[in-house]
Amino acid sequence: MQSEKIAVTGVGCICAGCTSPEELWEVLRQGVRRVGTVPAWLFPTELDFPVFCCNRNVLSDRARVLLEETPWEVASSELNRTILLTLSAASQALESAGLTREDLQEVRVGIALGTTVGCTFNNEDCYYAWSDGKEADLTPLWQYLTGNLSAVLHAVLGTRGPSVVVTNACASGTDAIGIARNWIRSGRCDLAIAGGADELSRIAYNGFASLQLLSQGPCRPFDKDRQGLNLGEGAGVLVLEPMEQAQKRGGRPVGYVRGYGMASDAWHPTAPHPEGRGLLAAIRAALADAGLSLEDIAYVNAHGTGTQANDEAESRALSTLFGQEAPPIVSTKGVTGHTLGAAGALETILTLLALQKGESGGTVGCMEIDPSLSVGPVIHGENRELKGTVGLNQSLAFGGGNAALVIEACGEREKGLD
Amino acid sequence: MPAYVLSAVSVPCSQIRNFPSSFLRPLRRADDLTRVAALSAVEAVEQCPVAGSELKGEKGGVFVGTGFGPLETNFRFLDSLRENGEAQASPTLFSHSVHNTVAGYISRILDIRGPGLTLNNLTWSFLWAMSEALSAIESGMVRCALVIAVEIRSPFLEDAYSKMTGNPPDAWEYGAVSWLLGSAPLGDEHPICKLHGVEVSERPFSAREILARASERWSQGGENLKGPMGYAFALTESLYLLHRNVPDIISWEVDAAFGHATVDLSEA
Fold it and tell me: Is A264 on the interface with B (CB under 8 A)?
């Protein structure tokens, strides 16, 4: 087991209105909400719940080059949108880490990615045709069978090493980063590419609508008038390496994954435990793993979906932990939407950015904190100075899953992430 | 540090109705995928009751590996969406169409409050899950872990297989496998064996290679494995053969066009 810190040496992301971490930070600081109705080119719907949608073309130029140069024979038209989002974020993360495909051939590369929509066969035309006894075009099924996110990224990069897709619902991205970090600590790989991705899907959109969890307007996490969540899409990817190895090759750590914890509520299929029981256990486990205490936490990136149940449970858990001495708490879903499997990864990146810049940013959409909540976030338009470089990113999921990461930014705050 | 394999259970889908009545209520809305997985988990714990109390609380974990997961439940949700219209589809079906539903249910019925991890991989997701469970035990994150593989029959997939190969997949076996791992030998029963390591190495694969699995070969006997759960059933069966006539160390291997995997076991 390696005792040294596991460094974040590269970061990449894509989500509504943002194609880099710095753009994402600026969107958060300015409180810009790229939210609107579902575009007609994405999928047909008569519902008008707003979503955070990326541009139609999500394959970046650098990801296109990566695909053109891959030893694996594949065309971008054969890859689903979740994979294209992943490739865009991953290629950016590798570039920011100063790593080429050739560099990756020399080491064991672990790939851990979280997704929900990305591992589900959702093609309605194909399924309905088959179900009706018609001749179904099975092309979408063949693409699904070869569309495992981590396997595809390994194939595109030509790399070898551990490969998992985490499907822990909304905590998937957080768990994927924690798992990858543990792989490096235990020596199972030399370098890891970790994060999460998900595209907007008509099935998830209708599913969340059926659960009455979608907001009719832009989401308002922790606000007294919150109505629910907005779905979003995107990808966030980190490159992780042992600190010494990163420094030896000239890589520049931008932060560290210090601790990871996961725990189950053992409570309800979709609702969190009202006291945030599993979340508390996950946070405590992550702090113990990091060898740090609550006093070290200078910032909390909350799951903060904007649903009644989530925000209450999360608030109670944070109140139990910190009392009234909580560090700045922020939900960033007001600028990204709930990107499901990508959420934990995007929020880890936002945690790093906040800690690096020494400021919290505000909870976009939260104008007046629900007075019934035990503790509340930094509200919309507010910005607080952070009193440290260590923070917490936490995720809650359907099925009662909870995950927490303790993240540390490098001390020199002037360093950018891209 | 190895983990101890305290029990291991295979449950084919045909036994899904044998569920203990005490679990009928908490599983009344569960789909077949969850039910068969839960049945295997409960039976694995019944084989080593002391481990059941170790599993409870934050030092127990659930690690699930599944390839197709709740594919059929997702199709029922699509049916519901088409029949009832937008926003009128079944919320119960949607909430059960998420891959980690199985882990959620099992953590609830057995009160397991430690890690709950679901891994999705069409190659050998059970082995990836086992590898993560072993790491969790080695690192002290958990003292006891349930590792579960589960797949259920999908007429859609079987039909696609037939169209692809021209043959019916008549030998495919479905159901669930649960292994109970511990950091120490628990209870009066002798552990089945020790688990030292799991190594999986994958290669890029085609849709045909992964659906047909025609190239998949198991080192013990070289027989054909049957469908996406074949390797998990075969490995579990082999444990009991090992238990009766165990050499010092045995390396279980599986080869396929899509990769190679090894599980290292020894006498407890």
Answer: yes
Question: Counting beta carbons within 10 angstroms of the beta carbon of residue A382, is it exposed (0 to 12), middle (13 to 18) or buried (19 or more)?
Answer: middle
Residue-by-residue pLDDT tens, chain A, 418 positions: 555 799 999 999 999 999 999 999 999 999 999 999 999 999 999 999 999 999 999 999 999 999 999 988 888 888 999 999 999 999 999 999 999 999 999 999 999 999 999 999 999 999 999 999 999 999 999 999 999 999 999 999 999 999 999 999 999 999 999 999 999 999 999 999 999 999 999 999 999 999 999 999 999 999 999 999 999 999 999 999 999 999 999 999 999 999 999 999 999 888 899 999 999 999 999 999 999 999 999 999 999 999 999 999 999 999 999 998 999 999 999 999 999 999 999 999 999 999 999 999 999 999 999 999 999 999 999 999 999 999 999 999 999 999 999 999 996 544 445 4
Catalytic, out of A13, A53, A170, A219:
A170
> Does residue A170 have an active-site annotation?
yes
Q: Cα(A174)–Cα(A191) distance, rounded to whole angstroms?
A: 17
Is B120's CB within 8 Å of A119's CB? yes
> Please, where are the H alpha helices in A249-303?
277-290
For A366, residues 6+ apart whose C-beta sits below 8 A from its C-beta are: A220, A221, A222, A223, A331, A334, A376, A377, A379, A380
Give B30 to chain A, closest Cα distance, Å.
10
A209 CB within 8 Å of a chain B CB = yes
Q: Which residues of B touch A285 (CB under 8 A)?
A: 58, 141
Is the Cβ–Cβ distance between A403 and A178 less than 8 Å? yes
User: What is the pTM assigned to this prediction?
Assistant: 0.97
Nearest-neighbour CA in chain A from B229: distance (Å):
16
ipTM reported for the complex, 2 dp: 0.96
Closest-CA residue in chain B for A396?
Answer: B116
